[in-house]
Amino acid sequence: QVQLVESGGGLVQAGGSLRLSCAASGRTVSTYAMGWFRQAPGKEREFVAAIAWSGRSTYYADSVKGRFSISRDNAKNTLYLQMNSLEPEDTAVYSCAARGTQLPGAVYRGVRDYNYWGQGTQVTVSS
Q: In whole angstroms, what is the distance from residue 117 CA to residue 95 CA?
């Protein structure tokens, strides 16, 4: 089993930045593909960014491309999401997810692709 705990959310003004962290425990996630998703009130959970367990491949939703950056530190069992130029539309609960894979370069965008989820951290961007 893998436990995921997000941190780093908060209230920020439009144009500001936040860095989210996702700490994994219970098992090393060095061979787990990981991703970030978000869910705004009244909306379905949506894909934000994903990274292969090798770290060599990343993928972003069009809405965050060029503003957000996903990275991981396998030695620390931690996933990150650097969010810059935040917009009010980015307001949501952000959750990290993980899944095992034998493919070092594989990235996954679907909610159903992932086995493990964190509880989420609230990000609120004021205008």
A: 7
